[in-house]
UniProtKB/TrEMBL annotation:
Keywords: Membrane, Transmembrane, Transmembrane helix, Transport. It is a multi-pass membrane protein. It is found in: Membrane. It comes from Mucor saturninus. The keyword Calcium does not apply. This is Natural resistance-associated macrophage protein.
Length: 511
């Protein structure tokens, strides 16, 4: 589809989206507001008619894109730092945990995609509609904190890459990174397909850079296979193991994925067959994207296992993103640090842009149409993250590793406020219909995965409090926070019953 065709499809889908919102009772702050076609990606890519049950490469290509943008969050600088530190402390022994972390992430991302496909609304909109005002406001605040914390790591990581390549001061790199806002605004005018190709190119750069470094480091294949197949967590690597799980799944990424899948046009009133087709190909695409993400993360763990890890010897100080470049240069050759910096630059630049997009959907979904113009939304979401990042770059540059630990803890605290609503929304026959709601087995498995991931994050949080010697304000916050998480698990959704959902409920009760 050409640019003109994409624009026509966008305008058509915008009208349909507006009608759908009015029909379903969504309220905006301005009654005269019309959906902004620059940010709304609904229906930009035509997926054609449903085909037979046979697998189709052509169909997969039509649905390919959202999963790759989603996978970028698994490759942001915070994840890369977690990878290099786990490799430095434990060698290849945590590769199995890295794999299962990605598998857990895949389960949550598939639920996010299904939610968007079936309801044709993204997660932020559904939370706003199906939770009380106070609950949705609290969830929004946690989500916004997660975006800020993630964006700080991404912006600082990009600035570090610029410093390695050009030797600039860190705060200069932060300012340069801010220019991605204008690049992103420019890309959005050409349709979602162009954005997807751009981000897939950046992932390709990461694959090339990090795998070149892995081959240059001459890894031990037997140790890699043992690390993947034999579960073990060395005592000295407990914190790194927990951090690896906590850093993989980003709360705001689930909001983003549920919105991006709507870029595929599956019809004004999609049939169940068409929705099943979309869910099927989005699941395959997400699995492929996260497998590539796993291979990139694996390469980083292996490289730093080769460079840093010495069996039986404890590291006196954990390496950071900048320290890593110097060590690579000394051990693998002077050009190694430039491959590292280029891969880090691609990771940071792509993740800051997807973070910007996620921020727009979160603001729009929770707060409504408070801004009519796209650049107003981008300016707000970028400023929210850019100002704290600049303060970190100027005032806390010598303590960034400590700041990174705090930001990882912040991400872990925000994760339940995204996972719990997804599990409850996708289990509701009133929202997903009886055909697409989670089966009992899916519910059990996903809740179990969620409790495991949340449990790891709780361990990370309490370990951090122990390092701070349990300050009273932190203990008070912990009590309030865990009470709210239990409240989210306990309270039912506030779903307005429709004729279709009532029939589904009656059908379910008769089974």
């Amino acid at each position: 589809m050409g640019i003109q065709g994409e624009d026509e499809a966008t305008v058509l889908s915008s009208s349909q989206s507006l009608l759908s919102h009015r029909h379903k009772g969504y309220q905006t702050l301005d009654p005269s507001y019309e959906w902004n076609v620059e940010i709304d990606v609904k229906g930009q890519v035509d997926t054609g008619d449903s085909v037979d049950d046979k697998f189709s490469i052509h169909k997969l290509m039509q649905y390919t894109g959202p999963g790759w943008l989603m996978a970028i969050a698994y490759l942001d600088p915070g994840n890369l730092e977690s990878d290099l530190q786990s490799g430095a402390v434990a060698g290849c022994k945590l590769l199995w945990l890295l794999f299962w972390s990605h598998a857990a992430g895949l389960a949550m991302q598939i639920l996010s995609a299904r939610l968007g496909v079936v309801t044709q609304n993204h997660l932020a909109q559904l939370i706003r509609k199906n939770y009380s005002r106070s609950s949705s406001t609290a969830i929004w605040l946690f989500t916004q904190m997660a975006i800020i914390g993630s964006d700080i790591q991404e912006i600082i990581g990009t600035a570090i890459a610029i410093k390695i390549i050009f030797g600039t001061r860190l705060w200069v790199g932060v300012l340069i990174t801010a220019s991605d806002t204008f690049l992103f605004m420019w890309l959005q005018q050409y349709g979602v397909r162009k954005i997807e190709i751009f981000f897939m190119t950046l992932i390709g750069i990461m694959i090339a850079c990090f795998w070149i470094e892995m081959f240059v480091s001459k890894p031990n294949i037997e140790m890699i296979l043992k690390g993947i197949l034999i579960p073990q967590i060395p005592k000295e690597a407990t914190v790194q193991a927990v951090g690896m799980v906590g850093a993989v799944i980003m709360p705001h990424n689930m909001f983003l994925h549920s919105a991006l899948v709507m870029s595929r046009n599956i019809g004004t009133v999609p049939t169940d067959k068409k929705k099943k087709e979309a869910n099927y190909y989005f699941a395959i695409e997400s699995a492929l994207a996260l497998f590539i993400s796993y291979l990139i993360n694996l390469a980083i763990v292996v490289v730093f296992a080769q460079v840093f890890y010495k069996p039986g010897q404890a590291l006196m100080e954990l390496p950071g993103l900048y320290d890593a470049s110097e060590v690579l240069s000394k051990t693998l050759g002077k050009n190694a640090k430039y491959f590292w910096a280029l891969g880090l630059l691609a990771a940071g630049q792509s993740s800051t842009m997807t973070g910007t997009m996620a921020g727009q959907y979160v603001v729009e979904g929770f707060l409504g149409a408070i801004f009519k113009k796209q650049w107003h939304r981008i300016a707000l979401t970028r400023s929210i993250a850019l100002i704290p990042s600049m303060l970190v770059a100027v005032l806390a540059v010598d303590h960034f590793d400590t700041m990174g630990e705090f930001l990882n803890v912040l991400q872990s605290l925000c994760l339940p406020t995204a996972i719990i609503p997804i599990l409850k929304l996708t289990a509701s026959s009133q929202i997903m219909t009886h055909t697409f709601k989670n089966s009992r087995i899916t519910n059990y498995v996903c809740w179990m995965i969620s409790f495991i991931v949340i449990g790891f994050n709780v361990y990370l949080f309490f370990n951090y409090l122990q390092e701070l010697h349990w300050p009273p304000y932190a203990v008070l916050f912990s009590i309030i926070y865990f009470s709210f998480v239990l409240y989210l698990i306990w309270i039912p959704l506030e779903v307005s019953e429709t004729k279709e959902s009532r029939l589904d409920s009656e059908e379910e009760s008769s089974l």
